[in-house]
Inverse folding.
């Protein structure tokens, strides 16, 4: 009977140790579960934080875009206003087109008539070319497929050509009646100041006389200077002084 007590004591101690071990395991398991839950919670917090930061960045970007669009829209509004004003001005101008066209056609006809009269009274250089230019303008005025602006441009162009004649020197070949015989000669035009000719054989020279409205023969002493002038006009000789007969201005 003396051996029973120690056995019971050992059993009680073992039972107590087993119970303590179970409780410790339970505490450890719960602690692990708490740690895992904390990790998951922290992950969710991090995800929420990242999402909020991303949305904040998008919000800032959108605000910048809105500011830019506001400035752009303000600029567009100014441009649209200016375009509307320009359109109104164009519409007003278009209303006057028919009136202007009715006025400009008679003006061009008068300009062509004036040009024709001027050519007829002018020094008779390049008569065929200048007469054809005037005739071309008259034919142009009758064409319906050419705009009034183009017609006016061509008339002004013809006037410009005539103006250029007054400040240029030119040499060209044409036929000239000399002593009742038609001969090929070289003409020398010096602006509108002088129109002279020299026969191809270099033996006879003449000049246009504005008073008698005809060509008159020149002394042989002028032949060398006219020949020199022809070479200068054809750029065969450098520009130089010429001694030529000039009609005195009245």
């Amino acid at each position: 009977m003396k051996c029973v007590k120690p056995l019971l004591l050992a059993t009680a101690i073992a039972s107590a140790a087993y119970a303590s071990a179970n409780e410790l395991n339970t505490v450890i398991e719960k602690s692990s579960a708490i740690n895992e839950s904390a990790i998951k919670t922290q992950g969710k917090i991090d995800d929420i934080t990242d999402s909020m930061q991303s949305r904040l960045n998008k919000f800032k970007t959108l605000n910048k875009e809105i500011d830019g669009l506001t400035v752009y829209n303000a600029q567009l509004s100014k441009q649209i206003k200016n375009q509307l004003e320009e359109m109104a001005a164009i519409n007003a101008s278009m209303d006057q087109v028919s009136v202007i066209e009715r006025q400009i056609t008679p003006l061009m006809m008068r300009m062509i008539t004036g040009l024709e009269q001027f050519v007829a009274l002018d020094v008779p250089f390049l008569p065929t070319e200048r007469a054809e230019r005037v005739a071309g303008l008259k034919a142009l005025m009758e064409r319906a497929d050419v705009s009034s602006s183009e017609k006016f441009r061509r008339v002004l162009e013809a006037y410009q050509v005539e103006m250029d004649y007054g400040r240029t020197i030119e040499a060209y070949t044409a036929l000239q009646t000399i002593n009742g015989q038609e001969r090929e000669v070289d003409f020398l035009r010096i602006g509108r100041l002088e129109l002279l000719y020299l026969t191809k054989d270099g033996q006879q020279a003449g000049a246009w006389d504005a008073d008698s409205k005809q060509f008159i023969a020149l002394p042989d002493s002028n032949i060398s200077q006219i020949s020199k002038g022809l070479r200068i006009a054809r750029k065969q000789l450098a520009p130089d002084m010429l001694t030529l007969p000039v009609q005195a201005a009245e």
Remarks:
- The chain has a mean pLDDT of 85.
